[in-house]
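Input/output pair, single chain:
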Amino acid sequence: MVELADGSLITCTTRGKRTDIACGDRVQIAMTAPEQGVIEVIEPRASLFYRSDIQRQKLIAANVTRIVVVLAVPTLHRHLLDRCLAAAEYAEIPVLLALNKMDLPQSDVALAALDLYRALGYEVLPLAAKIDIAPLRAALAGHTSVLVGQSGMGKSTIINRLLPDAAARVGELSEALGSGRHTTTHARLYHLDANSSIIDSPGLQEFGLQHVETTELANCYVEMRPQLGRCKFNDCRHMSEPGCAIIALMESGGIDAARVASYRELLLQIENKSRYRD
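Output:
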């Protein structure tokens, strides 16, 4: 679906089998029939947020100025969160961490678990979307934002509260599976006002970063940046090498060990991709 300058929506196809179009892209089209067209040109992007595995890339949103990672009480999935943050740092897009369902028990514990990320410079917003959406609405003002996170975190509820007419389907958290049902099947952009828009994206279960080179990955972890270039070896992978500045800082408590483990897991996956490609 492509939105025209007058706000109307038309259905468009692409030339050939092109699939590299993301929600939020600005495009040039040619009309082929009433309310139908074909995308001819994708305008240059100001930003692109995406994930990738060995087989393919999955574009999430283009031209966004803020990524809103939606988390929820009581369980924080740090594995997915760290990957989203690394991808955001790689794309150079600011992040807001919205901790939803703060009206539930154990909310204080979940909020305290995000102190680490707040200390790293990430903005954390406590939220009870079903009760009061105003804090998030204020944070979205002037931005083109994309909501990302696992299914069941309340992304569709957030859209419904921000835009009651959007009729986004809400999925209840599946206790049996430990994750929510996928209710949003494709990304869609909504206008909050003349200067603010929000993109709702399908729920994530995994987040690969196979598009990031091994030499660039450490720079995607903000706490590692000051240590880069201080290791004994120029090609240090920060795994077990002697004289590694990051390992030394971790052992002294200066860097969270779980974040280092997250980095190492990603590094091994990217290196496996390189061997697969070779």
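Residues 214 and 267 are 6 Å apart (CA to CA). The chain has a mean pLDDT of 89.
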